[in-house]
Amino acid sequence: MPTPELEPRTDDTTRSPLRTLQILSALAANPSPVSLADLSTGLALPKTSLFRLMKTLESGSYVQLGPGGYVLGTESLKLGAALIQNRKFPNCAIPVMQSVSDRCGETIILGVAAQGAEEVLYAEVIEATRPLRFICTVGSTHPLYGSATGQILLSYMPEERLQHYLDHVQLKKHAPGTVESIDALREKLEHIRLTGFSESLEGLVEGVFSVASPIFDRSGVVVAGLSISAPSSRALRQRKELAALALQAGEEISRVLGYAGAYPLICEASR
Asked: How crowded is residue 191: how many other Cβ atoms within 10 Å of its Cβ?
């Protein structure tokens, strides 16, 4: 019966990417050098297979052999720094937004509160791939009350700030579906808190439907809204699917930011 150290080389080849990540994770979790024997035991990998992988990683400066065993090399440290940078907001949202775009082909928008919290700022935009599409630009700002992402930000805003906003905002008609009264806006925000997502039919642009979900940070504060926007003639036939997709993306980005609570966060209708 062959020993584990004589297992077929093809098995090493197919599993080597996963094993490489396991090795780097094990070294990252240990502040002190780790011996080949301890790595072999901890990862349940044959020493001969592990030794080959370690030599390859060492040649690329991903690990370094020193007194007492292996430690992470300079390339692993660079990779770690890059991962931390990409985890920062809003960079961490872009891969999720692209995935949503690939699945539905519509315009994906990441909206945050602009300075002064009176408008929503489009921080990131993935353009639609369909010929008939809604077009918007990164850096543009719009009234909070008029857009699906803006209404997400309003609905989870602390009551004192929300009341200040409602006391001073001047509602203007931008499109057929623009909310026209403070009472109607209040009612819509309560509905968003009950469902966990927002919908806007021609709230800012005629012929456009949007659905948006909240993005929470580690402390449970809503820092952005993610919306899917498309021509209403097409989107209304898929509104349930688009809402589910927006919520899935909102939760994924929230988890990346460290949010561990319920999603979507359902609040009471009145505050």
From this structure: 15
User: Using H for helix, E for strand and C for coil, what is the string for the chain?
Assistant: CCCHHHCCHHHHHHHHHHHHHHHHHHHHCCCCCECHHHHHHHHCCCHHHHHHHHHHHHHCCCEEEECCEEEECHHHHHHHHHHHHHHCCCCCHHHHHHHHHHHHCCEEEEEEECCCCCEEEEEEEECCCCCCCCCCCCCCEEEHHHCHHHHHHHHCCCHHHHHHHHHHCCCCCCCCCCCCCHHHHHHHHHHHHHHCCEEEECCCCCCEEEEEEEEECCCCCEEEEEEEEEEHHHHHHHHHHHHHHHHHHHHHHHHHCCCCCCCCCCCCCCC
Q: What is the pLDDT of residues 15-72, one digit of tens each?
A: 778 888 899 989 988 889 999 999 999 999 899 989 999 999 999 999 999 999 999 9
The one-letter code for the residue type at 76 is: S
Q: How far apart, in whole angstroms, are the C-alpha atoms of residue 123 and residue 120?
A: 9
Phi, psi of 231 (to 5 degrees): -55, 130
Q: Which has the minimum average pLDDT: 22-36, 155-169, 183-197, 233-247?
A: 22-36
94: which 2 tokens? 């872009």
Q: How many residues does the chain have?
A: 271
**pLDDT, tens digit (0-9, with 9 covering 90-100), for 71-97:** 999 998 888 777 666 567 788 899 999
pTM for the predicted model, two decimal places: 0.70
